[in-house]
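Objective 1.3, modelling of assemblies. Example input:
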Amino acid sequence: MPEQTPSRTAAARKPFPFRLHLEPRLSEPPRWYPVVLSLGAIVVALIIGGIVIALVGGDPFQSYAHIAKASFGSIGVLSDTLVKSTPILLTCLACSIAFRMKLWNIGAEGQFIMGAFGASAVVLIPIFPEQTPGYIVIPVMMLAGMLGGALWGFVPGILKAKLNVNEIISSLMMNYIAISWMNYFIFAVWTEGGFQMSRMFPKNAWMPRLLDFADSLPFLRGLTTHAGLLIGIVAAVILWFVVFRSRWGYEIRLIGDNPQAARYTGINITRTTVLVMILSGALAGLGGMSEVAGVVHRLQTSPIAAGYGFTGIIVAWLSKLNPLVGIVVSILFGALLLAGREIQPSGIPKMIQGVILVCLIASDFLMRYSVRIERVGEEA
Amino acid sequence: MDVITILQAGVGTGTVLLFATLGEIFAERSGVMNLGVEGMMLLGAMSGYSVAIATGNPWLGVLVAMLTAGLLSLVHAFIAITLHADQVVSGLALTFLGIGLSLVLGEGLSKAGTVALLPSISVPVLTSIPILGRIFFTSQNILVYIGYLFIPLSWYFINKTRPGMHLRAVGEYPAAADALGINVFRMRYFYVFVGGMLAGLGGVTISLAIAPGWFSEMTTSGQGWIAVGLVIFAQWNPIRAAVGAYTFGALRRLILDIQGPTMILGMANPFYYNPYWGFFLQMLPYAFTIIVLVIGSRDAMRKRLGAPAALGTPYIRGERGR
Amino acid sequence: MNMTQTTDTSPLLVEMCKIVKRFPGLVANDHVDFDVRPGEIHALLGENGAGKSTLMNILAGLYRPESGTIKVNGNPVNFNSPRDAIRTGIGMVHQHFMLVPSQTVTENILLGLDKPRFLLNLREYDRTIAELSTRFGLYVDPRAKVWQLSVGEQQRIEILKMLYRGTNILIMDEPTAVLAPQEIEDLFKTLRTMVAEGKSIVFISHKLQEVMAIADRVTVLRKGKVTAAGLDAHQITRQDLAKLMVGRDVVFHVNKKPVEPGPIVLEVKDICAENDKGLKALNGLCMNVRAGEIVGLAGVAGNGQRELAQVITGLRKCGQGSVTLNGEPVSNQSAMFGIARGIAHVPEDRTHVGTAPNLSVTDNVIMKKYRSKPINQHGFLNMGVAEKFASRLKTEYDIIAPTIETPVRLLSGGNLQRVILAREISGHPSLLVAVQPTRGLDVGAIEGVHNLLLEQRANGAAILLISEELEELLSLSDRVFVIYEGRIMGELKIESGEPAPELIETIGQMMTGTPLEKVQTGKVLLHA
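Predicted structure (C-alpha cells):
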C-alpha cells in the first residue's frame, strides 16, 4: 500500500476561525428553555413562511396582521376561533395519546370522519323519533361518533399488534377509505335532493351553543362556541390524569420510551397497542361528532374532511404530547385556520403548518445538544 | 373493457409508483426512512407542470421537478441525518411542507391553459410481440420506457457494484462502513436526495404524462403513501417493487374503466347502473395497500429478513454507550 | 514513574504525543503519550473506562483529538477518517465487530476500498482472499455470509480485512473477550506469525495474565492518564501491573462468608428454546440454584446464556422442559407471572432493556412495583408513595443523581446499574437472575455490585450469575455450571481463595465443548 500522509488535505483547507461544538446535554435544561425554544421555532417558521408569501407576491406583514385581527380581534371572532379550535383539540388529544406510545397514528383524519359519520347516522337513519329530547340524542351521538372513530383506530391497531403492520401507512390508508365511505352515503343515501350533503339535523341533535343562552344573558348573542369545547377540555384533563397519574398511563409511557423495558417489566404490549389505538380513534371520532353536531349540523364532505386530523398531529407535537398544553396550542392553531380562510393563496395556512412542524423538530435538537461556538485552535 | 388495454394503461399508471418506490428503496437502503414521498411527489408534479407551461419544454419540467423534489428531500436529510431527529416525525413534517408549498406555489395553475406534454411512442420491433408487445411497447409514454430501464439498473447497482455494496453497508451497519472510511453522512444525504429526485420524477410523470394537469392535492391522491407501503411489500428489492407498482397501476386503471361499459362479462354492469358504487371501487387501492402490507409483514416475519438493520436510526459517530 | 523503561532505540513507527480527548462530562484522554515500534506487540492495559479504546480510536482515525500530535514514521499526520489511518498502514479490530451481517466475507473485506472500481466481480476476489487467509492461518469461507459465522471466524475476517489493506500496525481492542481459552491460544499464534513478518500489534486489554503472556511492552492507562509508559513486559510482575492499573493494591478475592445453602429454589429441567433467528439456542439444559447460594454460569458469549435468562424470567417461550420456582412451574408464563412470584432480573443490557432512559428515576424504580399497593390505588398511581420509595432507594443504594425527577439517561453506567439493582433487590426476591451485572463498570462500581450480590446471598436469596468474566464467576460463586451450545457441560464446586490453574483449564475445555467427564487436565494453558 502506498504510504502518504493525509495531512495535505487538512492543510489545504483554509481553517475557519470559529467552529460549532456540539455536546449532548448532561443535565436537564431549565424549565423555561423548552418553552422559549418552541416559541423561537415558531418565530423562525413564521419568518420562513413570510418569505415564501412574499415570493409568491403576497404581503407577509399584512397576512399575519390579518390573522391576528381576524382571530382575536373581538369577542365574536374569539368565539369563532374557539369553534375552530374544538376539533383541533380533540384530534390533538387523539394523536398525543398514540404518539406517547410511539404509535404513529396519522389516521386521525379518517377517525374524525368516521366519528362524524357515526354521529350523523344516529340522526339520519334515524334511530330516535323526532320529539326525543337533546339530552338523550346528543350522548348517543357522542357514543356513536366515538365508536366510529374507535373502529377506524382499531384496524391499524390490531394489524400493528398482531402482524407488525406499519401503522403509519395503514392508518393513513384508512383515511382515504373513510372519505370514500362518507361520500357514498352523502351522495347516494342521505343526499338532500341530489345535493352533495345530507339534510339539516333537527334541533335536538345540535350541541348547545352560547347563543342558546342569549335570552337570559344578552351578551352571548351570536356567539357560536358550542359544548364541544367543554367536552374537549374535560377530555384533556382526564387524559392528563390517565397519562401521568394512572397505572395504565405509566405503562403507555414506559412502552413509548423503551418497549424492551416494558416487555421485561411484564407489560402486555399487544393489548396496550390495540387499546391505545381504540382510544385514540375514539377521541378523534368524538371530534368529528362535535363538529357535525356543533357546527355543520349536517353531513357534508368539505367542512368535515378539512384536514383537522393532520393539524392535530402538529398541535400534538407542538404541545410536547401534553394534553393540557394541547388546549392552548389548539386555540392558537384554531386562530391560524380561521384567519387562513381569507388569505390568498389558500394553501398558506397548510404551508405554514408544515414549516412550523419542520422548525419544531429541528429545534428539538437543541433540547438534546448544547451548542458552543469556539475558536479553532484555542487549545493548541 | 379489454384486459390488454387495462394492463397497457396500468403499466403507464404504475410507472408513477415505480419511480417513487425505487426512490424510497434507495433512501431506505441507506438507512433513512423518508415518509415525505407524498409531499415530494406533489411538489415535483407542481413544479414540473408549471415549468412546462412557462417554457413550453416538458423535459425542462422533468428536470426541475426532480431538482425541487430533491431539494425538498434535503430538508428531511438535514433533520434526520445531521440533527438526529426522529425520522417518522420529520417525514410527516416533510409531507405537510411539500403539500403546503405545492398548494401555495401552484395557486391558479389548474387554469393555466395547455401544456406541452411528454411524447408517447411505440417501439418498432417489440410492438409486434404477441400480447406483451401491446402491453409494454405500444404507445407508451417515453417515461414508461425509462422506468423499464430503471428496474434492472437499480437491482444491478444495489447488488453487483461497489457503490451499491457501500449503500447496503451503510444501511445495515453504518459503524462498520465508517470504520473503513466510507462517509456515512455523505452517502445518506446523497441517497435521500436520489430518493427525492425519483419521487419528483414520479410526480411529474403524473402531471406531464399519465394524467396531465394540476389538480392540487388530488394530483397524487395518496400515491406517495402507497409507494412507502410498496417498499415494505417489495422487501427493498427493485424487481419486486416493479411487480407491485405495475399491479397497482393496473388496479387503478381497472377501477376507472370498470365503470364505463354497460355490459360486463355478458351481464348488465352494476357499476354503470349504480354510479355511486364507484366510491367503493375508489377504496380498493387503499384497502389493497393495507393487504399488501400485511402480506409483506408476514413474509418478513416468517423469513426473518426485511428492513435494512439501521433503518430509522441516526448514526452518531463516537457516541459513548451510557 | 520510576519503572524499568526499555532502552531500545529502534525508530518509532508511531508516536502519539500529549493526546487530549474529552467526552461530555469526562476527559477520556488527558495528555497521553504512546508509541509503537516495528515488530512488537505493545499492550495497552487499563480498566474499563480508562480511555484505552478512545486513544486507539484516535490512532485509527475514528475520533479526532482535541489536541496533541501523531507521527507515523516520523511524519506528522492528521487523520480525518479511518480511511486516512488505513492509508498510512494503521488498522483496528474493534471490540464489537464492524462487520455487515448480511454481506459475504469478501464483500466485508472489500468494503471502503477503491478497487474494484465499479463492478464487484466477487468470484475473482474470493480467490485472492482465500489465498490470504491460508497464508496467515485465518481460515474462513470467503463466500459465507457473516451472520452465519461464529464469533471466532468473524474476528478472523476483521484481521483479514486489515491484512488485505496492507496494515502494518494492527490495533486489537479486547480481542480475547469473546473467545474461549483455546481460541485465544490460536489467536496468539496468529499474532506471533504477524509479528514475525515484521508487523506491529497494539493489544488492548484489561486482563493482566493475557498481557503478561503476549506483550513485549506494556503501557498502562488509568482514568485517562498514563501511569506507566512502554514497560518491558518481561521484567515486571503481575502485582505491579495491577497496582499501576487500579491505583492501589487489588484484592483478588472477595469477602465471601460461608452460607449454608437452603432448599432448591430454581430448578431447570431439559429446557429447549430457540433464539431470535429461530435457531436452537437451548438444547436440553438442566441446572438448579439453592437458596443462599450464588450459582455461576460460565461460557463463551452466545452459547444460550441470554436465552436461558429469558426463559427463566418469562421473556421467552421454551419448546420443552420445565422451569420451577419453589416447586411451582414458571416457564411459558408471562413475565408478570414470574415477577409476582419473586423472580428479579438484572438484564444484560442496562440501557436498552433494564431502564426507560427518558423517564425519571422514580418512574424507573417503580417498574416492578407499580401494579400493587401502596403505589397502585384503584388504577391510579400514588405519586407521593412512589417518590418516597424512590428517595429511600436513592439514599440506601447511593444512587448519585441530581434529583429523583432526573431522567436516568443522564446517569453514569454505575449509577444506572445501581438503579436496576436497587429496584430488583428491594423486592426481596427469592431468585435473582443477574446477567453481566458488572460489564463496562469501573472497579469501584464493580465492587459495589459484588457486595450487593453477596448481601443477597447472605439474606437467603438464590442467585444465578451469568457472566463472561471467569474471574468474577470464580470469586463470587459457590457452584459453577459451564454452558456450551445450549447444554450444560458440567458442574463444579468452587472453593474460596485463589482458583487453581487446573480449574481454569478445566472450565476452559468445558467452554469449548468438552463435557466435564472427558476433560483431561495437566496441560498448561497460557504461557505466562
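The first strand of chain C starts at residue 14 and ends at 23.
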